[in-house]
Specification:
The protein is α+β, with helices and mostly antiparallel strands. It has two helices and three strands. The chain starts with 6 loop residues before the first helix and ends with a helix.
């Protein structure tokens, strides 16, 4: 995974890799896969590296 990724691109990649959107809270998409949950904020910016590391 690239270290700098736009939020919408990350959301598409996660959905392609089996993550499912559980709910959407304003601009925050909550996704789940195999019991693991993560939140992807869609603010039109690059995703922080810490979030990318926590997902992988």
């Amino acid at each position: 995974m690239k270290q700098h990724r736009k939020d919408k691109d990350l959301l598409k990649l996660l959905k392609k890799n089996g993550w499912n959107i559980v709910r959407i809270n304003s601009s925050h998409h909550v996704l789940q896969k195999d019991g693991k949950t993560t939140v992807v904020p869609l603010h039109g910016k690059d995703v922080p590296i810490g979030l990318l590391n926590s997902i992988s």
